[in-house]
């Protein structure tokens, strides 16, 4: 079987480092909402990439549980200067994904 570079297919948010509570909550939620062994977290001091191969899901209910307070996914927007992949947004979850399997 040929080696596939998983990092070329990673999708998910890139969060700015000035929102530490939110970043920690997204990290925890990532492991709950996605297969834990597929979550990739890269802390680059000024920003944090939180990704998974091909599909990354973040649920509002999980963020509420982790933060212990009401939470709307729109709160992520100021903390997220970038993301990898495409994004589908609903009131209850955000899903980052690849447009095509061969991208």
TrEMBL record:
Molecular function GO labels: monooxygenase activity
UniProt keywords, alphabetically: Monooxygenase, Oxidoreductase, Plasmid
A family per Pfam: MmoB_DmpM
UniProt KW Oxidoreductase keyword: yes
Domain of life: Bacteria
Stated family: Belongs to the TmoD/XamoD family.
Protein name: Toluene-4-monooxygenase system protein D
Annotated source species: Thermomicrobium roseum (strain ATCC 27502 / DSM 5159 / P-2)
Highest classification ranks of the organism: Bacteria, Pseudomonadati, Thermomicrobiota, Thermomicrobia, Thermomicrobiales
């Amino acid at each position: 079987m040929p080696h596939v570079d998983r990092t070329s297919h990673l999708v998910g948010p890139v969060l700015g480092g000035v929102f530490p509570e939110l970043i920690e909550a997204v990290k925890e939620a990532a492991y709950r909402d996605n297969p834990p062994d597929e979550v990739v977290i890269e802390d680059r001091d000024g920003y944090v990439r939180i990704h998974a191969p091909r599909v990354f899901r973040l649920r509002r209910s999980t963020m509420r549980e982790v933060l212990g307070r009401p939470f709307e996914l729109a709160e992520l927007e100021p903390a997220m200067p970038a993301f990898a992949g495409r994004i589908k947004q609903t009131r209850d979850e955000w899903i980052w994904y690849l447009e095509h399997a061969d991208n």
